[in-house]
């Protein structure tokens, strides 16, 4: 049986990607010493080392890795051992040209960068199976082995392949899904533009077509590619699980990654991990807080690891701003506040050669222990040793935001009334308001059990099926508060319109129908009245016709004046709200704040603006984590009666305290 993460790593994990194959042996010992000094207890080894592990077909060379594993173990550093399948070697690429992915125009990719393999290639699948088996057999009993790091950022550079292998696999996938060609014709609506197929062989990729693509074909291609790439992970996982049944297995996820349905993937992960690189230009990295919450939600609240961040600056933006002193620490604690149990970096030692040599690392090129970066890295690593009690603790959220990958794919396909309505921004409209209020949020899928939440918000849920609509009805009937925003409930899972008046499946629940869509040009705003005040809105108006719902806000400008902008409908014991436009953030914040107050959903504490506070609880107790994103000190009022220990300073705090600018506090509630 696979071990629990907290059993394997019963402390805050700290470290980074380690690429010893880029350095000579004498550096390895120096690395281990510096790691120990910096509080590093976990590193990911061998992510891009296929070419030095299998130098020619069946010529394996594990000598160097044996030594590295031994040195790390002797210095108390555990290993997330990578399966090294993230990039195929030159010899492999030449020997198996069919292993290479093909672009949309039918041109195969060249060797020389990374991730050029085709997810459907039988030779790639055979090659990785052999390598992974050898690695697992060799290191199954090595004491440094803590977890398996499968591949790396699946799909990062290449998430679509148009090879012959992929086309055959696409046909098989479609046959499995539709059983007969008539089913596919029906699903894709192929009587439109004479797109009818007589047999599977007539089907091509949705690529290189003259004008608008078939939306059903596009959606299925996205599902197919997600499935093909996912199969690669499952192939590796099956081998690792067979040989090392108790070692946790994961791959690392990414930011805003549309091609892979991470909710599906997470079911096969023992741990969710992701790589976060906020641009310092963004200021407070709210969109990364969103992703921390999303990552925690993928496995129903299980703590996640930050598998990569950078100590200073990346090298892949137009301008690579560096994190100012203290910012790396601050943002690391933002991760911990959202239930991160591991803080890892790309990478340990700054590279000498290759495309990433100017990417920041835990040890900079100067190799000096008194460099700012290494000093900050060491300070954090040693400080995290005080936080064992946080490991495995959870956040109890009473608000959930619906997030659905297939909806993301569908709503952003071309040919919509407004083609600038990106899904993540619509979700952020509501997330950002809750973040500013410090109200804990989970993300859920439309079909999930919603019964543990008081409030569920579904922004722009364009595709929906009967079961999902019924799930929302049950939630509201049983007393829940549901918010649905414009352009929701429009299409089925093949992107065909639900007839019967938009949003057909949700009409009953919302008590209204939408007569037509009114998209606005860029920069255009309308006004609406709500709570005796006037607010602006942008993007879009759904022309709402009330059935049994009531308008709680109406437009106050132009030809839409006096028509409903926001509605409320009592349904069973609960309430269903419909927001038919994109309101300004001031209104959204007031609205969610009011709904939360109605349901007695409160933040862990009321704190000054730009201070984050979250609560993580478990057997080890109740922790309050504070992150002060302000430059200035902030006064925190804890309220009467409780006493806490600041785990970072050992101070006992019972009422108010001053949190310095850009500083953090982790308080453990005293139980006596
Ligand atoms: C990704 C990859 C790493 C490295 C970093 C650079 O996260 O997984 O290998 O390329 O980006 O930021
Ligand atoms: C053209 C075409 C029609 C239709 C319309 C849409 O006029 O002839 O088939 O696509 O554009 O505006």
Layout of secondary structure:
Blueprint: H1 5-8, E1 13-18, H2 25-37, E2 42-45, H3 50-53, E3 54-56, E4 59-60, H4 63-74, E5 78-82, H5 90-95, H6 122-139, E6 145-149, H7 164-178, H8 181-188, H9 215-243, E7 249-250, E8 252-253, H10 262-266, E9 273-275, H11 286-298, E10 304-308, H12 327-337, E11 340-345, H13 372-383, E12 399-402, H14 405-411, H15 423-436, E13 441-444, E14 455-458, H16 466-477, E15 481-485, H17 507-510, E16 512-519, E17 525-530, E18 533-546, E19 550-555, E20 564-571, E21 574-579, E22 581-583, H18 585-598, E23 611-618, E24 621-628, E25 634-637, E26 644-646, E27 652-653, E28 656-659, E29 664-669
Helix pairs in contact: 6-9, 7-8, 11-15, 15-18
This protein binds alpha-D-galactopyranose (GLA) (2 copies).
Notes on the structure:
This protein is an alpha/beta fold and 672 residues long. Helix content is 30%, strand content 22%. It has 18 helices and 29 strands. Strands 12, 13, 14, 15, 16, 17, 18, 19, 20, 21 and 22 form an eleven-stranded mixed sheet that branches. Strands 7-6-5-2-1-11-10-9-8 form a nine-stranded parallel sheet. A five-stranded antiparallel sheet has the order 23-24-29-26-27, with helices on one face. Strand 20 and strand 21 form a beta hairpin. The longest helix is centred in the middle third of the chain and has 29 residues. The two termini are 38 Å apart. One alpha-D-galactopyranose (GLA) binds next to loops.
């Amino acid at each position: 049986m696979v071990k629990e993460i907290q059993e394997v790593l019963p402390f805050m994990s700290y470290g980074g990607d380690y690429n010893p194959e880029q350095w000579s042996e004498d550096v390895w010992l120096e690395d281990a010493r510096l790691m120990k000094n910096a509080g590093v207890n976990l590193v990911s080894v061998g992510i891009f080392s296929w070419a030095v592990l299998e130098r020619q077909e069946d010529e394996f060379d594990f000598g160097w890795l044996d030594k590295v594993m031994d040195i790390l173990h002797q210095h108390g550093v555990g290993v997330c051992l990578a399966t090294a399948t993230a990039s195929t070697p030159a010899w492999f690429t030449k020997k198996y040209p069919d292993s290479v992915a093909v672009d949309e125009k039918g041109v195969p990719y060249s060797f020389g960068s990374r991730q050029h393999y085709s997810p459907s290639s039988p030779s790639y699948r055979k090659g990785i199976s052999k390598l992974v088996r050898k690695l697992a057999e060799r290191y199954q009993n090595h004491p440094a082995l803590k977890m398996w790091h499968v591949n790396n950022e699946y799909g990062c550079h290449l998430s679509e392949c148009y090879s012959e292998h992929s086309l055959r696999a696409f046909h098989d996938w479609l046959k499995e899904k539709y059983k007969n060609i008539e089913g596919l014709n029906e699903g894709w609506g192929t009587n439109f533009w004479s797109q009818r197929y007589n047999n599977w062989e007539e089907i091509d990729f949705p690529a290189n077509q003259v004008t608008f693509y078939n939306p059903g074909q596009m959606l299925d291609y996205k599902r197919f590619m997600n499935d093909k790439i996912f199969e690669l992970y499952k192939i590796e996982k099956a081998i690792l699980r067979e040989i090392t049944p108790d070692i946790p297995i994961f791959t690392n996820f990414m930011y805003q990654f549309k091609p892979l349905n991470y909710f599906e993937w997470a079911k096969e992960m023992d741990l969710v991990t992701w790589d976060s690189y906020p641009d310092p230009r963004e200021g407070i990295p709210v969109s990364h807080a969103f992703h921390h919450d999303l990552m925690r939600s993928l496995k129903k609240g299980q703590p996640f690891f930050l598998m990569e961040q950078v100590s200073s600056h990346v090298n892949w933006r137009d301008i690579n701003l560096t994190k100012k002193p203290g910012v790396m620490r601050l943002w690391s604690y933002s991760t911990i506040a959202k239930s991160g149990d591991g803080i890892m970096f790309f990478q340990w030692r700054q590279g000498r050669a290759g495309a990433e040599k100017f990417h920041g690392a835990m040890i900079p090129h100067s190799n000096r222990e008194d460099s700012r970066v290494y000093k900050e890295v060491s300070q954090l690593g040693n400080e995290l040793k005080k936080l064992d009690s946080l490991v495995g603790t959870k956040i109890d959220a009473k608000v959930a935001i619906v997030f659905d990958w297939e909806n993301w794919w569908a709503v952003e396909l071309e040919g919509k009334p407004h083609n600038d309505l990106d899904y993540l921004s619509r979700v952020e409209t509501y997330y950002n308001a809750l973040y500013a209020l410090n109200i804990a949020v989970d993300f859920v899928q439309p079909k999930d059990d919603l019964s543990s939440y008081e409030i569920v918000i579904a922004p722009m849920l364009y595709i929906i099926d009967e079961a999902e609509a019924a799930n929302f009805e049950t939630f509201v009937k049983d007393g829940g508060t549901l918010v649905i925003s414009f352009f929701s409930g429009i299409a089925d899972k093949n992107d065909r319109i639900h007839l019967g008046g938009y949003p057909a499946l949700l009409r009953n629940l919302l008590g209204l129908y939408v007569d037509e869509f009114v998209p606005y040009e860029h920069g255009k705003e309308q006004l609406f009245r709500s709570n005796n005040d006037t607010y602006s809105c942008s993007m879009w108006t759904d022309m709402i016709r009330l059935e049994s719902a009531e308008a709680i806000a109406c437009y106050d400008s132009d030809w839409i004046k006096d028509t409903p902008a926001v509605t409320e409908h009592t349904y069973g014991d609960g309430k269903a709200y419909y927001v038919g436009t994109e309101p300004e953030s001031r209104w959204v914040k007031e609205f969610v704040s009011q709904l939360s107050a109605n349901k007695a959903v409160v933040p862990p504490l009321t704190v000054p603006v730009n201070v984050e506070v979250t609560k993580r609880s478990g057997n080890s107790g109740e922790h309050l984590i504070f992150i002060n994103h302000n430059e200035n000190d902030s006064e925190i009022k804890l309220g009467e009666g409780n006493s806490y220990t600041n785990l970072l300073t050992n101070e006992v705090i019972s009422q108010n305290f001053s949190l310095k600018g850009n500083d953090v506090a982790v308080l453990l509630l005293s139980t006596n």
